[in-house]
Amino acid sequence: MITLRSIILGAIFCILIGIFEPLDVLYIHGSPMAADYSTGWAVFFFFILVFLINQFNKKFLKKLFLTSQELITIYIMMIVACAIPSWGFTMNLIGLLGGIFYYATPVNQWDQLIHPHLPKHLFPKNYNAIWYLYEGLPKNMKIPWNEWILPLTNWFSFIIAFYLLSIFLIIMLSKHWIEKERLIYPLTELPSEMLKKERPIYKEKIFWIGFLIPFLFYSLNGLSKLFSFFRSSLLYKREQLILWQVIL
C-alpha cells in the first residue's frame, strides 16, 4: 500500500539525489552515482533506510517503522529520480543549451546552418551568460539566473509532458509485459531480495563479502582524491594490489 509518508520520504530522497549528483560530478569530480540510468544513489539511500533508519524506528519509534511496501515505493521513486539530474537529462540539456552556441566556429558554420532555425524561447538570448557557463563568472559577479529562467521553464514544460506520456505508455503496456512476456525488472531485484520475510539476502555472509570488497576499495580510492593521507598511506597502496588480485 502506498502511503503519504512513503511519498514524502521518497520526495525528500529524490531532492537529495538531485543535489548530491551534480555536486559529486561537477564540483567534487568524483565517481558518478547516477550516470545515465545507473542507480547508485538509490541503492545507497535504500541501505541507509533499511539498516539505519528503519532499524532504529523498529526499536525506538515503532510508529515510524516503514513496511516493505513503503520501502519499495521509496526505492522506485529514487531510481526514477536518478535519471533526472545526471546525463539521463539535466547534464545533457544544460550542455546542449549553451554548447550549440559556445562551440560554433567559422569552420562548422553553426551560426548560419543551425542558429537561425532554433526557437528563441528555448535558448538563452545573452551570449555572455553562455560564455560564463563554460569559462566561469567574473569575480564577484552573481549567476545571471534571469537569462536562464525562461528557456529552462519552457524545457521543463516539455519534459513534464514527455514524462507523463512515458508513464501512460508504461501503464498501457505493463500488463502485457508482466503477464504475457514475463519480463524481469533487474532494478527491483535488490529491494525484493532484501525485504523477503524468509531469509532476506542481507542475512547471507556471501552478500556482505561481495558488498564490502568494492565498498572498501572504492571508498579508499575516493578518499585518496580528497585527502593526501590516504594517497600516501600504505593501506592505499596495498588496496591497489589487492584489487588487482581480486580482479585477476
Question: Gist?
Answer:
By secondary structure, the protein is an all-alpha fold. The chain has helices at 4-28, 40-59, 68-81, 90-102, 110-113, 127-135, 149-180, 189-194, 205-226, 228-232, 234-247. Helix 1 (4-28) runs parallel beside helix 3 (68-81) and helix 4 (90-102) crosses helix 6.
Q: How does this structure look, described?
A:
The chain is mostly helical and 248 residues long. It folds into 3 domains: 1-88, no CATH class; 92-184, no CATH class; 204-248, no CATH class. Helices cover 66% and strands 0% of the residues. It has 11 helices and no strands. Helix 9 packs across helix 11 (234-247). 15% of the residues are buried.
List the helices and strands and how they pair.
Blueprint: H1 4-28, H2 40-59, H3 68-81, H4 90-102, H5 110-113, H6 127-135, H7 149-180, H8 189-194, H9 205-226, H10 228-232, H11 234-247
Helix pairs in contact: 1-3, 2-3, 4-6, 9-11
